[in-house]
Amino acid sequence: MLFGQNMTAAAVEAGVFDERVDPETLLDRAMAKANEFAALPQTAFARSKRQLRSRACEAMEAAIAGAEPLLNGWLSKETIQAAAAVLARKA
Predict the structure, then answer these.
(1) What pLDDT was estimated at residue 5?
(2) Which residues pair with 2 in a beta bridge?
(3) Do residues 3 and 86 touch, judged by C-beta distance below 8 A?
(4) What is the DSSP letter of 11?
(5) C-alpha to C-alpha distance for 30 and 77, rounded to whole angstroms
(6) Alpha-helical regions (H) of 39-76
(7) d(Cα 57, Cα 88) in Å, to the nearest integer?
(8) Residue 57 CB partners (closer than 8 Å, separation 6+)
């Protein structure tokens, strides 16, 4: 689910998500992926993951410290109202 809408195959084709699974097979597929990751060399996997996430982590740390201007956009009245509207449709 993304923005309160069910994900379609187009989202997978566009690269937004890696794959789409039906709710009935979600747990089994998640466990299979977890087992694949668990079989990888732990040190190399951790190092690669840390390198891939480093910019995102730095941006989050900057936001927490109050040094990230994009955060203001996410916390704007307009964005909060839009999120509330999506949640209200779900209720």
Answers:
(1) 63
(2) 5
(3) yes
(4) H
(5) 36
(6) 42-64, 69-74
(7) 31
(8) none
Coil, helix or strand for 5? strand
Structure tokens at 79: 């964005």
Q: What is the pLDDT of residues 20-59, one digit of tens each?
A: 888 899 999 999 999 999 999 999 999 999 999 999 888 8
The pTM of the full predicted model, rounded to 2 decimals, is 0.48
Cβ contacts of 4 within 8 Å, gap of 6 or more: 86, 87, 89, 90
Indicate if the pLDDT at residue 85 is higher than 80: yes
More confidently predicted of 51 and 64: 51
User: 4 pLDDT exceeds 70?
Assistant: no
CA nearest 20: which of 6, 28, 10, 9?
A: 9
The single-letter DSSP state of residue 19 is: -
Residue in the structure block whose two tokens are 């996997």: 45
